[in-house]
Amino acid sequence: xxxxxxxxxxxxxxxxxxxxxxxxxxxxxxxxxxxxxxxxxxxxxxxxxxxxxxxxxxxxxxxxxxxxxxxxxxxxxxxxxxxxxxxxxxxxxxxxxxxxxxxxxxxxxxxxxxxxxxxxxxxxxxxxxxxxxxxxxxxxxxxxxxxxxxxxxxxxxxxxxxxxxxxxxxxxxxxxxxxxxxxxxxxxxxxxxxxxxxxxxxxxxxxxxxxxxxxxxxxxxxxxxxxxxxxxxxxxxxxxxxxxxxxxxxxxxxxxxxxxxxxxxxxxxxxxxxxxxxxxxxxxxxxxxxxxxxxxxxxxxxxxxxxxxxxxxxxxxxxxxxxxxxxxxxxxxxxxxxxxxxxxxxxxxxxxxxxxxxxxxxxxxxxxxxxxxxxxxxxxxxxxxxxxxxxxxxxxxxxxxxxxxxxxxxxxxxxxxxxxxxxxxxxxxxxxxxxxxxxxxxxxxxxxxxxxxxxxxxxxxxxxxxxxxxxxxxxxxxxxxxxxxxxxxxxxxxxxxxxxxxxxxxxxxxxxxxxxxxxxxxxxxxxxxxxxxxxxxxxxxxxxxxxxxxxxxxxxxxxxxxxxxxxxxxxxxxxxxxxxxxxxxxxxxxxxxxxxxxxxxxxxxxxxxxxxxxxxxxxxxxxxxxxxxxxxxxxxxxxxxxxxxxxxxxxxxxxxxxxxxxxxxxxxxxxxxxxxxxxxxxxxxxxxxxxxxxxxxxxxxxxxxxxxxxxxxxxxxxxxxxxxxxxxxxxxxxxxxxxxxxxxxxxxxxxxxxxxxxxxxxxxxxxxxxxxxxxxxxxxxxxxxxxxxxxxxxxxxxxxxxxxxxxxxxxxxxxxxxxxxxxxxxxxxxxxxxxxxxxxxxxxxxxxxxxxxxxxxxxxxxxxxxxxxxxxxxxxxxxxxxxxxxxxxxxxxxxxxxxxxxxxxxxxxxxxxxxxxxxxxxxxxxxxxxxxxxxxxxxxxxxxxxxxxxxxxxxxxxxxxxxxxxxxxxxxxxxxxxxxxxxxxxxxxxxxxxxxxxxxxxxxxxxxxxxxxxxxxxxxxxxxxxxxxxxxxxxxxxxxxxxxxxxxxxxxxxxxxxxxxxxxxxxxxxxxxxxxxxxxxxxxxxxxxxxxxxxxxxxxxxxxxxxxxxxxxxxxxxxxxxxxxxxxxxxxxxxxxxxxxxxxxxxxxxxxxxxxxxxxxxx
Length: 1163
Known about the structure:
- By secondary structure, this protein is mainly beta.
- Helix 1 packs antiparallel against helix 2 (1129-1161).
- The protein is flat.
- The chain starts with a helix and ends with a helix.
């Protein structure tokens, strides 16, 4: 029996042991599995819970991770190197790197923390692979960090190593910077460049850089890696092609960009439409820009770095260019003939096409920004020429006149003389014309000399020769000249001799110049005084002396030439013979200062003067320059006559000048520019007229050219210049204003514009006039017409040979004017009684009340198609002056009267011959205007309430009126957090317009009424929506806490520590009845509907659930995990099962021990 029981107890014991172990293992499995909480499903038909974020969330206990260790970088073994297969030149791929060339820093994964790649995260080097020919030393590479929006920070792992040359395995230089990087940050890696002296033919010196982003825990990469290779292959200087691109600008120009992708500077030059555009050098990896206009073809020529040239070509699109400032075109007489110059005042280069004489010569070129260039020259100066320049958006034309630049030809003369006391001949060339030139010479048929420049009036010693017979020949562009010495010249016997002398003349201050023939034969001589200032020819008989010239005293030179080229010179000194005194002159002119007197000194020396004006003002001494003038004095009194006397020493001793009264009345000058076509020519005469009340100085310029000074008197019209036909602009500037006029493109051309004539006739309907315009040309013409100075206007196209009716007007005195071809004006007029007047429809009289002023205004209305003249009388009073009411309109407010008494208004009107044509009366009663009481102004009120379960406040504008009201609002005016805005409150409604926090704020709303603005303000107390707290003690094993709805709604938070539960109630939208039941043996009660729970860390603390507030009328809710956001109902069940299994396992083990004891007892 005992043995049977013992066996039974042993079996039961084993069973309990087995169940206990199974339960314990299951419980341990559930605790180790660490399965995240999943959102539980709600049974079909159950109310869906509303999950709200906690208004006062309590953070779960923070766990400090262990200090991170530096990442362990996994070196990557280099692959075999094959020096013989190393690619050469820029862009070579893989170089010497083999498989290792793709390597970038690789991080060992921390098995306890796994990093994941972050989409959008990247690291990139700022340079592409490049060739470097520098010596050994440090070399840098820079990377840029790019992070997506959901990754705020990251760390960086870098690597560099020498690919070749190396003596063994590649040595990696891994490094992880301590710093934290954000989006857009950069980091520079420094490596050691081996130097180009390591290079050998067939291999490539190379260094490799790598970089990769890793996460903040240093657990692994979050981006792909990037690499950079710097190499030297023996020929870095071979540059790649320059890159040329263009883009249109807002101003219509084309912006060109020329980029250099090479790592060396590149010299370049470019042309635009075949014309030189510019040149320069682009820095390594740099770029440059330039601009053109219109469709431009740019050809860039550049050095290829190895002794050759390459080109790149591109053509731009037409970018418009309508905003360009017009180019200007002018011409000048040059040695080449007539040369045209185009000026570009724009900030961009402008491409142009040019045409000379309707296609005789054409071309294209580019005009640089803010500069001028010569376009073309014509050597034919005897004929007229026309050059037209066109560009994108405009054109310009300039015409030269026939013979305008016919140049005087240079005239050279060859002379010779014997150098005293020698037998050497001096040869000279003189330029006796007004044209500079260059020449060459040869002596006795020898070699031509180098070109020699000689200016007008100059004499040059060109060479010498021995005595005897010689010939010197000079040659220049338009002629030749020569002179020959005789066989015995400058040898032994002297040639005929002419001597020069001078002496003071009988009249003080003058010099007589004499020439004496000391030979025994008559000699013809040419004389020149002061380098050609005076010249002459005379024959001096043998042994005779002649007076060549009498000059004033001073420093002078006399020169005579005779016997084929012998030159004799005599000179006087500066103070010799004194100087004659020439009397000074005095004149005056109207200037901005009034009347200004000027004294003129014709003497070749200065003169000191003193002056006296009207015996009331004196001054001096003043020094008048030699052969010059100075202003002596000005009088601002232009209304009176004045007398100025200037005194000096010498001559007459004084000079006097008088001005007349009002001669220069100072007013304001008003200038206008006029132009007209000179008859039977294509020449425009430009004039300036002074219509003001003051004379003035002014400057003028044609087509933006040089400024020219001039003076114009009151009422004067002066011709200032002429120009060719076509478009030109003359601008004038004076002290108080500017004026300009511009001729049209076709103005003053030989072809006459189409002719338009005007006429008028009485219409079929009595009292009206028809106005006609006829086109007598053979082409259609568009005209603009204006009736009575713009009272009626219109535009019409008149076909060739056709006549149209422009307008039908009432009879009387009128003017019709038509304008066509931009500036041609034709006018026609009718007389006062022509065609009579139409019947006048009666005028109508009315009145209107002026509220609040007890007055009314009177109005007359005209329904006729023409204006009507009328006058009026109020209450039998006098008739007013004549007034005019326009056609088909009203004249309001021609008078007013009181509205508290009765009135009678009479109005009468007149026909074309000023006869009364009709009369009307209108009466106003005493109560015509009753004061109307305006409606009350709109009124708003301002309210605020706490929002639901939050501590925020909703501000509302309430409108009790019948109309919507627009308002503006401002919060905390003048404070740092001031806000403002606008909104509208509907009629008999309210508008929520602002949400604020619980800190306390002042809000003001303002709206407008007919009488002004109204406003209302309210201030919310700080903390008006604050949280209240209640503490409830919970005693294990089971405690129920019930929250009963009270006067305010609430969301309740329960914080549980062993034995204590704190219940916090916050104002909300509803307060449910909620029970809390603690589970025995746990420190954290399961979360229930209507509460937010959080537990204080304990020995087995786990995150507590946040429970959403149930929908009103429903008792269902779901616990939400603060860690994952999932429903904790299933997680709570999991924790309960863990405890059941653990406790069950312990219970079964305990039972096993009991039965094992019983089994021993019955053995």
